[in-house]
């Protein structure tokens, strides 16, 4: 699973499969009862695969699959690796908070500059927000790097289920 852009915090992939989408969705649904390594849940055309609670860490990924029907015997699989949605929401909230504070400090600095008052504190706070943003970015990158093995485990599990159901991942439909 090559990632062409190293800036990606939530890697995505797409596959064309030589199998009906309902057959594959049923296979993932059946995997709930035949194994206990992963938690598998299905909602419509979406399948979520994640680690059990006792194996999860803060940055543990989950795999979100969407399997859409392309033709009668072909389907398209869209996959997205990401942290728990609660963690991702908090992470994005912090990014927006930092961006909002950066803009607010910028407006405050511009106002003081326009009024010919000292604005060094506001510029310092803007610089601090840039540092905090970089810290958040690197925290996300470190979290992704620390869960690489889990990402591979999730991907291998998905590939195993697909291959058990007759999907040839090397064949292009």
In short:
The protein contains 4 helices and 5 strands; from the N terminus they run E-H-E-E-E-E-H-H-H.
Description of the structure:
There is one protein chain. By secondary structure, the chain is α+β, with helices and mostly antiparallel strands. It contains 4 helices and 5 strands; from the N terminus they run βαββββααα. Strands 1-5-4-3-2 form a 5-stranded antiparallel sheet. The longest helix has 30 residues. It is elongated, with a radius of gyration of 22 Å. The model has no long low-confidence stretch (mean pLDDT 86).
Shape: elongated
Helix count?
4
What is the radius of gyration? 22 Å
Q: What order do the SSEs take from the amino end to the carboxyl end, as H and E? A: EHEEEEHHH
Structural class: alpha+beta
Beta-strand content bin: 15-25%
With strands numbered from the N-terminus, the spatial order across the biggest sheet is: 1-5-4-3-2
Protein name: GTP-binding protein
Keywords: Membrane, Transmembrane, Transmembrane helix
Transmembrane segments: 87-108, 120-139
Organism: Hwangdonia seohaensis
